[in-house]
Design a protein that fits this description.
The complex is a heterodimer of chains A (468) and B (584). Chain A is of the alpha/beta class. Chain A is 32% helix and 23% strand. Residues 464-468 of chain A have low confidence and may be disordered. In chain B, strand 23 (374-377) and strand 24 (383-392) form a beta hairpin. In chain B, helix 5 (304-323) packs across helix 6 (335-348) and helix 11 (455-479) crosses helix 13. The chains are: A alpha/beta (468), B alpha+beta (584). Chains A and B meet through strand 5, helix 7, helix 8, strand 20 and helix 11 of A and strand 1, helix 1, helix 4, helix 6 and helix 9 of B. Bound molecules: adenosine-5'-triphosphate and magnesium ion (MG). The site of magnesium ion (MG) has 4 residues of chain B, from helix 3.
Chain lengths: 468, 584
């Protein structure tokens, strides 16, 4: 392994060095700071005369005298089942004072694409206990379903509620051999937010079956580009080698993308929309597409990435590109939050694309799809009328319109509102739904099969019977 | 893809690696030659030649590739293998069969592996249709092979052959590399043809299409039809229904062959096709849908250069089946990812960027691609067609961006998806005010003859009613519905049934998912019957409230899901008319 002292340029997160032997694209690099520690990086461009190196831990303190070592291989993550229960930093070094990690294998962190022919289509319903998700935007095992949130909104509470309550109802009865594990990757979140997660994991005992990667707000930004890759490489090992059902929480993807932008700018690349690199779509998909199931393998990877939308704007490149890759999205809503609705999930723009295959007869209940469609239609109609009512007043509206206004209000107060501590079974969720639908005349329920109306419609609806 | 590594011209040496773009010196290469890059022999294509340096886009991950490694030229352009065995298959962007790769590599796609696009060992039963002494020319069909239960594969003289008298041809069992026919010109014909993906296959003549591609989707067939041989764009923000619509077309449209190109989209969506299609039946033939389908998958996490080529791979396969006289429909989901791949490669080449960083040749590439659609007379005098439906994924859902705009300049059908419709679960979320089809007039004669003679009139009535509704809605937003005169309130009521009972169609409902043209027409008619009877009632003295509470009317929204729709509709129309007559 040859050492060079040939750095001729340091620029932002990048270091350029001359070389006289071929260096592989993507190869790992160590930069020795004259007695003041070591930095790690990766080759971003390789020519026969020089290389461009992206330094993970920041370039502060690097000068032309530093020596550069090329390790002859791409970045690897040491993986083992013993990682469960461990807390690592953003570049995969243990920070919990625990024993040294003895790897079973070392895996390339970039990962390779799952052959679509080898995938198994995700169909297993995960009951999160949250009505707005289970009833309206059902999550299934192997799905990637992000939370689209904004600064100061309770996305962490929601992610934790999912992690705590998630079960697969069928399996509780049959007893599943595969176990549940959590891989948590923090990118640039505050120490306070990180503690929120850690405390909850410790209190509920979830830590034992979790692997935690922490890159906090004051950790180097460029490191954020490798943290999720380390986490997903670990998740793949747990899921596809050790057969765990892994839930991966990635937060905050916005910080990850900012780091990408920083590197792009330093390389003087032609920027795409709002200064983010043109290849951000491909880059993000190489993270998100690592969710899924593989035929013949017991384990699975379910991803819940969290992102805070700058200015609550979902046309911003980060949520936009994410939405184009993930299998739906859950919107955390500022207006519902200020009304005190917990969890403040706006179901209208939310979507689970894998829902239709994961619900219905034998999976949840046969009326589930119809009920969900009808609740959507009713809530959308009621919300539309709210703006009109501000102008013309309730008296100017027809009886039908007034009913829909009431429907939308009750939908928020009874269906969405449930608190962070309550878990509802899918049957509970559906009966809250039917209770609300029974406010409407039967003829309005045109999205529901008549046989279900017969069976579940409440002729004299009382208030909701399920605790909210 | 199988580019045998037989012919080595002159190896080059890698000078620079930057993601999917590699430069090499000393390579003797032509533009668009296929090359093998590095010690692992990664597949690539020459995209620029300047002085000593040849620039190559590499179709596989380049981590670990370093300067100094060799580049080997095949001397041939990027081509596909054409022959029996393509249907019921799934390929990556450069026609590597994914099922075969799974067998070799397991669940994850590693690199540096190669396999022929069609099975070279499989035995096919060849039946000649010409005999010794017959004169054949380029493109002519010389025999057939039953490729799948629904498709008879025509074996043709390759388009670049001279042709001549058949010297020898024999029925029997052959592999695709065995010679099935010899001509007196000395040319030998096998069942496998190779064709460079970037060159359209030749035809004799292009015609104006006059037959609709029947999709089984009410809003498409009813309002915005596409022709067999036509082009359509389906732009929309994420989650608005591009993929579901294209899956619906792949399932239910009456094309003979479907080529589905998943370009830079989700892995699970391809898996869904692989899992679901074999279980579905073609409504026309009753045969499994997969047996007429060929899938090309370059999912978003697969190498970006292969994304640039996957649409060409798809359309070349489509052209080959068109040459046999089939109607082929190509779904490209999403053309935006293809355009972005062009942008990424272009920016690595440090080309001068055009609008929003896309290369200046974006528009030329898009039109050249859609030009490969059409209704053709083939070299062999058969007629075949290629219809292309391209999804577009505009950033932020904003249709003013370059890919949408350049596409709209070319295609003749525009299905505009609308996030606000998708939010309220109005599916398909195709905005009826913005969408259009320039094929309407040329397809009407066929519809009049094959469905119902007043089809254009009924459609026109629906279009008018929906346009009227849009205008009235603006007023309602200001003053409320009750402030409108009763006849206008009734128009709103009728339009609501058009939206809920006709335009909406649930792709996931066993019955509703497919609506044959006859049913589409009757659904129109049923709502029009309500319209006509209700206006009579209104002028006869009935009030709008009375009309709104007529018991039978809401059942208009159940036509789509009704099992026996003919009976359901005729009964419903009668009840609606009777009940309305009671009001005055
Ligand atoms: N005709 C339909 N019937 C029922 N549901 C539909 C229909 N069309 C779309 N949907 C619903 O909308 C969801 C999103 O559709 P789809 O995946 O086609 O969006 P898309 O436009 O392809 O998004 P992206 O650009 O992110 O790929 C589907 O998962 C489904 O729930
Ligand atoms: Mg899609």
């Amino acid at each position: 392994m040859k050492e060079y002292q040939t750095i001729n340029e340091v620029s932002g997160p990048l270091v350029f060095a001359e070389i006289d032997e071929p260096i592989g694209y993507g190869e790992m690099v160590e930069i020795e700071l004259s007695g003041k520690g070591m930095r790690r990086g990766q080759v971003l461009e390789s020519t026969d005369k020089f290389v461009a190196i992206q330094v993970f831990e920041g370039t502060t303190g690097i000068d032309k005298k530093c020596s550069v070592r090329f390790l002859g291989e791409t970045l690897k993550m040491p993986v083992t089942g013993d990682l469960l229960g461990r807390v690592l930093d953003g570049s995969g070094q243990p920070i919990d004072g625990g024993p040294e990690i003895v790897p079973e294998d070392r895996r390339d962190i970039v990962g390779t694409a799952i052959n679509p022919y080898a995938r198994e289509y995700p169909r297993e319903f995960i009951q999160t206990g949250i009505s707005s998700i289970d009833g309206m935007n059902t999550l299934v095992r192997g799905q990637k379903l992000p939370l689209f949130s904004g600064a100061g909104l309770p996305h962490n509470e929601i992610a934790l509620q999912i992690a705590r309550q998630a079960t697969v109802p069928e399996e509780n009865e049959e007893g599943d051999s595969s176990e549940f594990a959590v891989v948590f990757a923090a990118m640039g979140i505050t120490a306070e937010e990180a503690n929120e997660f850690m405390d909850d994991f410790e209190r509920t005992g979830a830590l034992e079956r979790s692997v935690v990667f922490l890159n906090l707000a004051d950790d180097p930004a460029v490191e954020r580009t490798i943290t999720p890759r380390l986490a997903l490489t670990t998740a793949e090992y747990l899921a596809f080698d050790l057969n765990y059902h892994v839930l991966v929480i990635l937060t905050d993807m916005t910080n990850y993308c900012e780091a990408l932008r920083e590197i792009g700018a330093a390389r003087e690349e032609v920027p795409g929309r709002r200064g983010y690199p043109g290849y951000m779509y491909t880059d993000l998909s190489m993270l998100y597409e690592r969710a899924g199931r593989i035929e013949g393998v017991e384990g699975s990877i379910t991803q819940i990435p969290i992102l805070t939308m700058p200015g609550d704007d979902d046309t911003h490149p980060i949520p936009d590109l994410t939405g184009y890759i993930t299998e739906g999205q859950i919107y955390v809503d500022r207006e519902l939050h200020s009304k005190g609705v917990e969890p403040p999930i706006n179901v209208l723009p939310s979507l689970s694309r894998l829902m239709s295959e994961g619900i219905g007869e034998g999976l949840t209940r046969n009326d589930h799809g119809d009920v969900s469609d009808q609740l959507y239609a009713g809530y959308a109609e009621g919300r539309d009328l709210r703006s009109l009512v501000n102008i013309v007043g309730r008296e100017a509206l027809s009886e039908r319109d007034n009913t829909y206004l009431d429907f939308a209000d009750r939908f928020e107060k009874e269906f969405i509102q449930q608190g962070y501590k309550t878990g509802r079974t899918i049957v509970d969720t559906l009966s809250v739904g039917w209770n609300l639908l029974s406010m409407l005349p039967k003829t309005e329920l045109n999205r529901i099969d008549e046989s279900y109306i017969e069976k579940y419609y409440e002729e004299t609806p009382e208030g909701s019977k399920v605790e909210g | 893809m199988s580019q045998a590594k037989e012919k080595t011209i002159e190896d080059g040496i890698i000078k620079r690696v930057s993601g999917p773009v590699v430069s090499a010196a000393g390579l003797d290469a032509k533009m668009n030659d296929m090359v093998y890059v590095g010690d692992e022999g990664l597949m690539g294509e020459v995209i620029r030649i300047k002085d000593e340096l040849t620039t190559i886009q590499v179709y596989e991950e380049t981590s670990g590739v370093s300067p100094g490694e060799p580049v080997e030229n095949t001397g041939e352009p990027l081509s596909v293998d054409l022959g029996p065995g393509m249907l019921n298959s799934i390929y990556d962007g450069v026609q590597r069969p994914l099922a075969v790769l799974e067998g070799q590599l397991g669940a994850f796609l590693d690199r540096g592996v190669d396999a022929p696009g069609i099975d070279l060992e499989k035995i096919w039963e060849f039946k000649p249709i010409v005999k010794k002494g017959d004169e054949v020319k380029a493109g002519d069909i010389i025999g057939t092979v039953q490729e799948t239960e629904s498709i008879e594969h025509k074996i043709m003289v390759p388009p670049n052959f001279e042709g001549g008298k058949v010297k020898r041809i024999e029925k029997g069992k052959y592999t695709v590399v065995d010679e099935v026919c010899e001509l007196d010109s000395g040319e030998k014909i096998t069942m496998r043809q190779k064709w460079p993906v970037r060159s359209p296959r030749p035809t004799k003549e292009k015609h104006t299409p006059t037959i609709p591609l029947v999709t089984g989707q009410r809003i498409l067939d009813g309002l915005f039809p596409i022709a067999k041989g036509g082009t359509a764009a389906i732009p929309g923000p994420f989650g608005s229904g591009k993929t579901v619509t294209q899956h619906q077309l792949a399932k239910w449209s009456d094309a003979d062959i479907i080529v589905y190109v998943g370009c830079g989209e989700r892995g699970n969506e391809m898996t869904e096709v692989i899992e679901v299609f074999p279980e579905l039946e073609d409504p026309k033939s009753g045969k499994a849908l997969m047996s007429r389908t060929c899938l090309i998958a370059n999912t978003s996490n697969m190498p970006v250069a292969a994304r640039e080529s996957c649409v060409y791979t798809g359309v070349t396969i489509a052209e080959y089946y068109r040459d046999m006289g089939y109607d082929v429909a190509v779904m490209a989901d999403s053309t935006s990812r293809w355009a972005e791949a062009m942008r990424e490669i272009s920016s690595r080449l440090e080309e001068m960027p055009g609008e929003e960083g896309y290369p200046a040749y974006l528009s030329a590439r898009l039109s050249a691609f859609y030009e490969r659609a059409g209704l053709f007379t083939n070299l062999n005098e058969t007629q075949g067609s290629i219809s292309i439906v391209g999804a577009v994924s505009p950033p932020g859902g904003d249709f003013s961006e370059p890919v949408t705009q350049n596409t709209l300049r070319i295609v003749k059908t525009f299905w505009a998806l609308d996030a606000s419709l998708a939010e309220r679960r109005h599916f398909p979320a195709i905005n009826w005010n913005e969408s259009y089809s320039l094929y309407r007039n040329q397809l009407d004669p066929w519809l009049c003859e094959n469905v119902e003679s007043d089809w254009p009139d009924v459609r026109q009535w629906a279009v008018r009613t929906l346009a009227e509704e849009a205008k009235l809605q603006e007023i309602v937003q200001l003053v409320g519905k009750d402030a409108l005169p009763e006849d206008q309130q009734l128009t709103l009521e009728v339009a609501r049934y058009l939206r809920e009972g006709f335009l909406q169609q649930n792709a996931y409902h066993d019955v509703d998912t497919y609506s044959e043209p006859g049913k589409t027409y009757l659904t129109f008619k049923a709502i029009k019957t309500f319209n006509d009877e209700a206006f009579k009632a209104l002028s006869g003295g009935a009030s709008i409230e009375q009309i709104q509470t007529v018991e039978a009317v809401p059942r208009l929204n159940r036509i789509g899901t009704a099992k026996d729709h003919t009976k359901f509709i005729s009964q419903l129309e009668k009840e609606i008319a009777d009940q309305l007559k009671e009001l005055y």
